[in-house]
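Q: Convert this sequence to structure tokens.
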Amino acid sequence: MDREARLALLFKRDRRLPDMDPGRPSRQTQMSADMSSGNEAMADAEAPPASISSVSHNASEAEEPAVKKPWHQRDSSIFESGERADPTAIEKGFCPLFALSRLPYKYLSGQNGRDIARVFFDSGQFWKQTWDLYYILPPRDVYEHPLTLVPAAQVEEFLQKIRKKFKCDLALPADPQHGLVLRFHEEAPQPQYLGRCSSSNDKERLMEECRRNAQNQVPPELSGLSEDSIQEYRKMLSFAVDASRRTSKAEKERKRKAKLQRQREWAHALRRGMCFFGLLPQRPTTTEGGQVQQTFTLRPLELNEPSPFDPAMEPIFICIDVESDERASRDAITEVGVSTLDTLDLVGVAPGERGRNWTEFIRSRHFRVKERRHIVNHRFVNGCPDMFDFGRSEWVSIKNIAKVVNSCFFPPYSADSTAPSNGLQQKGEIKEHKLRRRNIILVGHDVQSDIRYLRNLGCAVFQPGAVGGQSTHDGARKTTKPNQPTFVDTMDTNTLFQVLKREENHRALSVVLMGVGIVGWHLHNAGNDARYTLEAMVRMILASRLAMEGKTRPWESNSINWALKPMWPEPVLGPLAESFRQHEAAWKEEVQRRVNEANVEEIRVREDCGNWEIATGWSEPHHADDIDGGKPRGIVIRPSKKKKAG
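A:
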């Protein structure tokens, strides 16, 4: 349809206009996709439909004036290309019900899928067909829920209606790997009849009955089958389960790998944190012949002794936290908290129990916006801007707040502000290493959110292009502009905590503090939150290093701190190697506990636990960065999304 025709429809207020856009699905199509699949317990998370089909539409010109390609010129799908299921398979076979209910949304693409969906699916037409429902219980390790089936002959009758309407050539595919036609041999377990369905209400009733039946049944025995028949049976049901999912097997694997990569990067950040504090050495050097030079032994960590290694890159940790008016936009910032910890201040200083000897060197600042001093959040969080517990709040005008926050990332890095609580360095006694440019590690709890706030505030150091997208091993100097801070890495206590506890979910700062044995007072004060976040990072890094040796401390929470596996050769590991067997036995028990307590399939829980084993170095495939976390990652400053005009 050309521009003039679309405008004509628009000014006539034709309600069909949104659905005539060939670049997007109709609202009805999207709603029906959710309705047709939202009630099945076995469904996975939804994914974009696969482009594997072609469909034609012979509606009148008044209904669809756009010119359409002939059927044979459209993209092919598994329903019209390749070998078709033979009549015997259709007569005696079964099809997974929910795979067919998603036909236009999962297997058909673009306008083709929308055409068929509008006529046969969008308004629940699929469930108004007459279906005889069957079910079978797959082996538990294949799938833990009943698999709902319909006779292939009924599916063929349904496809015949589509073929007649659209003059197309859709048919059930014969390839067993598609999982769309199942043949049960006589000696194999057979599907059980569930009932007849001709409406959505019938479907809901029968599915509930199926779930009740499945609770009192076990998968049928396969002992009477040959080994080859058992494998064939299991594969057939596995393919059918994959076909029934919203997400294709390939898409599911892609998401699993992406998730694993994120978890591995989080674990690498925790390893780099140990190197930054001198708790782990960086990876050993090699000779020209490729032999690793072993110049040390990784001995047990003693909290009453200084770090055994020099701090890698001698960085300064700067933690940020932002509070804003919960009733207004992201730009209405009311408080900014900044806490700083210099690793050069810690040289020769033992961390002490709870890391207190180190955290005493943290300098904390709390900036409040003068013009917004009356704003106190109370609807979603209990704000307490007057309760800064680590110094004196500093009042700054709106026009100067960005400049003041920027100054914290340059020499002397807040050393001229608040002295540490141990009094070892008083105001005015600024050491030389604070007067020169230093490597900075940005810290936060969900740090990207705080970066966005400060960028919107106008802080120059967080504007797109202000720093390089990624650092190099020499401290990001190659990617940082001369007049900007040298950000070498980012530490997010949100993801560090997930690695330490091997958890899938993000946790609030209050939960993280409890998880590392910190009592947080007056949270949601930006100054306090920045301070506690930095203290939590120190404790997590110490706890993770101790966990490598199987050690715990009374100040840790009741939940287990799971270790990153030390990836050093045996001569370097020394006594640490003794803790490996204990860890593996404890983790095996933990996995079983999670399986017993989960409300999802066992296979999914074990897959998640397996990902953590790989990410933390306890299972292959290993990564070179599993040794010391690899090169620092710098920080990424992403530009804000531009608002569309109009």
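The chain is about 35% helix and 10% strand.
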